[in-house]
């Protein structure tokens, strides 16, 4: 597994950048209006040159950026960097007498840092350098205010600033790589922990839960049942005459029978039911969120399915199971739940086997069930 990509939430960040462009647009209008209060130019001339004209141009640029992000999603980053360059060029060109505004050309470089990619930063740096040179060559007022050595100095400053930005990106990517490595290591450790936990709770032969896992699940489910959140039932199944199977056909054949019996139980129960190998040939099934009738019908279906299944390991013969069934009542306690089911199983064993018996507290005329 890998650390989530930096592209996550890119659409949201693009929207934030576009909003920042609109903020710059509004702020430029506000600043121009403030300058209107102190300018020596006639109001009509100032409004035409420094408010209406830049407002129209900047609005057009931001609207182009909106369209570019929407209709050119693969190139949204370059669209936004280019738009930032055009905005700064517009402001700088209109106010060419204010040479300090040339430093606004750093704006595209700052925007490119959001993308955390070297090529975007280099693209922004190239845009800034080209924009500065074009402004210098095209605008006589800028040339008169800034000597050639001043232009060279600004280019050096842009390159140095871009170099610092590259260093920041390099450090950030180094940190990201470390985080990615740590993340993947933690994920691998988590997977190993889950697998080890599963192995610790799984019976190797039957692939059901083991005795330890059964008790953990039982304690948790009993707590839920005590709070009245769920209904809980326990069925204990024991393979009849299993010692005879082992003595006659060997333990290897007995293991194969155990696997098949376990697979039948698992196939009949639901994903929320807990099937555990409790002892040698004994299985415990914890069933929640079902009515007594549904549970009774389920264990009967399991018993009958096992009884009609032939086993090649024992020359095509069948085995049967006896079942003890108990339903949890609030306040009963986990030991009483098990003891009731175990006593019912004992009675089933001594009443002819291959049958389902209910715990004494649940006894009804139908408590004896055989094929």
UniProtKB/TrEMBL annotation:
User: Which source organism does the UniProt entry give?
Assistant: Cohnella lupini
Gene3D superfamilies in the record = 3.30.70.270
In what residue span(s) does the GGDEF domain sit? 230-361
Q: Name one Pfam family in it.
A: GGDEF
Q: Which InterPro entries match?
A: Diguanylate_Cyclase, GGDEF_dom, Nucleotide_cyclase, Rev_trsase/Diguanyl_cyclase
- Tell me a GO biological process for this protein: negative regulation of bacterial-type flagellum-dependent cell motility
UniProt entry keywords in alphabetical sequence: Membrane, Transmembrane, Transmembrane helix
Membrane-crossing residue ranges in chain numbering: 21-38, 50-71, 78-94, 100-116, 121-138, 144-170
The molecular function terms in GO held by this entry are:
diguanylate cyclase activity
The protein here is known as Diguanylate cyclase (GGDEF)-like protein
- Gene Ontology cellular component terms for the protein in this record: plasma membrane
Domain of life, source organism:
Bacteria
UniProt KW Transmembrane keyword: yes
* Family annotation (PROSITE patterns): GGDEF (PS50887), NIRD (PS51300)
